[in-house]
Structure formats: structure tokens, C-alpha cells
Amino acid sequence: MKAGALQALKELPAGQITTHALLAYGDFPNNRWPLLVYHGAVSASGQDPAALFEQLFTAHHWVDCWRNGIYTYHHYHSTTHEVLGIYSGSAKVQFGGPEGVVLEVREGDVVVIPAGVAHKNRGSSNDFGVVGAYPEGYEPDMNYGTTDERPHADQRISSVPVPLSDPVYGDNGPIFRLWAPAPA
Length: 184
Description:
Layout: H1 3-8, E1 17-20, E2 35-38, H2 49-59, E3 62-68, E4 82-88, E5 90-95, E6 101-106, E7 110-113, E8 119-124, E9 129-135, H3 152-158, H4 175-178
Antiparallel strand pairs: 1-2, 2-7, 3-9, 4-7, 4-9, 5-6, 5-8
């Protein structure tokens, strides 16, 4: 990992990571694993703060990084998890579909979205910027919460494994504790 990304990484106390359980709602499957928000995980600074997130995610095998915003309609991915790193501005994002939780995300936050969890931008600052990526090169599909997408989406979601690495903290990250396999 490049020195800039490592220096930008903050050690977070347990209270700085929040989880949100989002159960299936209508045509939005969501996931048994919770949405994870690492508040203020990265000091987004310098001439190209997005590059810090790209370096961090890529170093932990979350690849195919992109820069943009978050779509203004409910959508989800059934073939992969997704990580979002907020490198500038802030936004109110709804997770879980039309009845889901609305969270404010801001510069420095990282959001780990389990496969199947719907997300939608409900309004953002003019300078809002996001880096997104996917674990181990899994390719995302696009689903919109229509009846015909399920149950095939449910089958795909159930086969998406826990990633091999936490997108922020690597091999020993909190994702392994928070997304522990269900008891047999």
C-alpha cells in the first residue's frame, strides 16, 4: 500500500463502526449480513483524496475502482458486495429499499454494502464524491427491486461469500467479526 493511503487510515474505536440490519422488504432482498459504516475511517485530504481510497481498497483486494456519485434510484447488486469511500462532501443515502434506513455519509466515511442491499442517493452536497469497488474482482449486476428479479437474485446473493479481506483494515478487519458465518 502506498504511504499516502496508509497515513490517511485512521484507527477507529468500536463505536465509530455502526451496523444496520436490513431485512428483506417487498422486492428488495437485502442481506442477513449488516450494512457497515466506518465513520471517518480515512483522512480525505490532498490534491486527489479519491486516490487514497483507491489505493486503500486495491491494497485489500477490493478492485475495479470507480469515481462518481450514488444513483438517485433504488438499486442493488446480487452478484457482489460493494464498498463506497466518501472522498468529498456529504449525502443522505437510503439503504434497504423504500422503507429502509436513511443515513448521512460524509467525507472520510466508508460504507460496506452486502450483496442484495438496496441503496439510493436522497440528496447530496454539490461537491459529493465517491470511490466504489468490489471484492476480489467480482462483477456487479444491476437490480431495481422488480418482482421478476426474485427468486433468482436471492439465489445469487446467497452464494456471494464473505470477502477475503476487509476493504479498510485488511486481513484482520471488523468485517470478519461482523459478518461471521451463521451457525450451522
